[in-house]
Design brief:
Layout lengths: L1 H18 L8 H26 L10 H13 L14 E4 L14 H13 L6 H8 L9 H10 L5 H12 L6 E2 L9 H12 L3 E9 H9 L12 E10 L19 E9 L4 H10 L6 E4 L5 H8 L8 E6 L12 H10 L3 E4 L13 E2 L7 E3 L5 E3 L4
Parallel strand pairs: 1-3, 1-6, 3-4, 6-7, 7-8
Antiparallel strand pairs: 2-9, 4-5, 10-11
Helix pairs in contact: 4-5, 7-9, 10-11
């Protein structure tokens, strides 16, 4: 009889507690499972944080810029953080020359390519005026619209594929500004890590360059970041392109593309993708504000300001690479001056000298001279004197 009463009480007690709105006490096994689950979550978060912090070994471990980026990205992927950013809105934009890759051999990739095309590889295809313009380029020149117009004229008549292939071919040439470096080898290893790091954390990465778009695509496609940046995510300077045979037709509305047609550069120039043009083309092609921007010069500040504008609905950050390393690189910028300037503008400065543990692959070093004057041979081609 006692057993029956005990059984009835045992069955009735939970029902009575439930009726009174009292939560039943979990059994020991349930408590243990809950604790284990919480501990597992904490360990998982710690492991992910450690994984993120170890994703940038080419950076100095004490780099403030690197730590800032890790904190930003860690918050952006944590749904419980105020800094969380949905995957579809995790967009980062990078300048190319001087930000992702070298611009000191002795100048930009596309400019060296123009010189090589006019004076070494195909002088028979270009005018004396363009050859003269190529010879006049010296270290420290300004990459303005006038020179970009000359680039467009030099490649007139080439198909899009031909310019792409030439840009790839040129990248295999060795630069005389560095030892053991082809032009395509100039990507900064720490910045390659940043691109991969963002990609691994579900960021969509765009390259927004002052270099012509087809040339930029050729460079990116054959670089260490090719896996992380698709051709459709490259924005660059625009040269006029038409269907071959219709170069002199004023409007593209007056003809149609047919199977087998080729797209050719006409020699016409549309727009240099620097300064405010970067902002405008980001809006046109991406359609929303990115949350991260990386640049290295005044021509990138419009892009940076667009990203960190207070109207951005998400947390945002902008990083400026400072070329202050004159040992491993041909850097000439003053860190104290530039870092103070960039901080005042709201950017995070990045020192190539102290933040980059490595810059280039092993074996690449500065040459004895950064620049050598091109000369014209009797055959009409240009020769470049070896570095002294």
């Amino acid at each position: 009889m006692k057993k029956i009463i005990s059984l009835v009480l045992a069955l009735a007690l939970p029902l009575g507690l439930a009726a009174c709105g009292t939560t039943s006490v979990p059994v020991a096994g349930t408590e243990a499972s809950a604790v284990e689950s919480t501990e597992s979550t904490v360990i998982s978060l710690e492991e992910k944080k450690a994984e993120r912090e170890g994703a940038l070994p080419k950076w100095d471990p004490s780099s403030p810029a690197m730590q800032s980026l890790v904190e930003f990205v860690s918050a952006s992927v944590d749904e419980n953080s105020d800094g969380f950013i949905p995957v579809k809105d995790r967009i980062a934009v990078f300048d190319m020359d001087g930000t992702l890759t070298c611009e000191t051999y002795f100048t930009y990739y596309d400019t060296c390519m123009f010189i090589s095309y006019c004076l070494e590889d195909h002088p028979e295809r270009v005018s004396d005026e363009l050859k003269a313009a190529a010879r006049e380029i010296k270290p420290g020149y300004t990459a303005g619209e006038e020179l970009a117009r000359n680039f467009a004229k030099a490649y007139a008549g080439m198909t899009v594929e031909e310019l792409y292939d030439y840009a790839v071919e040129f990248g295999q040439k060795k630069t005389k500004s560095f030892n053991n470096m082809r032009y395509i080898d100039g990507f900064y290893l720490p910045m390659v890590e940043v691109v991969k790091y963002l990609y691994d954390n579900d960021y969509t990465v765009y390259v927004v360059s002052g270099t012509e778009r087809t040339t930029t695509r050729a460079i990116v496609d054959n670089s260490p970041i090719s896996e992380y940046v698709s051709p459709s995510h490259v924005i660059g300077t625009a040269f006029e392109v038409k269907v071959k045979g219709n170069e002199d037709v004023s409007s593209n509305m007056d003809f149609k593309y047919k199977d087998g047609d080729e797209l050719v550069f006409t020699g016409g120039f549309i727009q240099k993708n620097l300064n405010a043009n970067k902002t405008i083309w980001i809006e046109r092609e991406i359609g929303q504000r990115p949350v991260l921007a990386f640049g290295n010069s005044g021509s990138d500040t419009s892009m940076m300001n667009y990203v960190i504008d207070k109207r951005n609905p998400y947390p945002s950050q902008a990083y400026m690479v400072v070329a202050d390393d004159d040992v491993r690189e041909w850097g000439t910028q003053n860190w104290e001056e530039k870092s103070a300037q960039y901080k005042e503008q709201g950017y995070v400065p990045v020192s190539m000298r102290t933040d980059f543990a490595e810059i280039y692959p092993e074996g690449i070093t500065k040459a004895a001279a950064q620049y050598t004057e091109p000369e014209t041979s009797d055959a009409g081609k240009a020769e470049v004197r070896p570095a002294a």
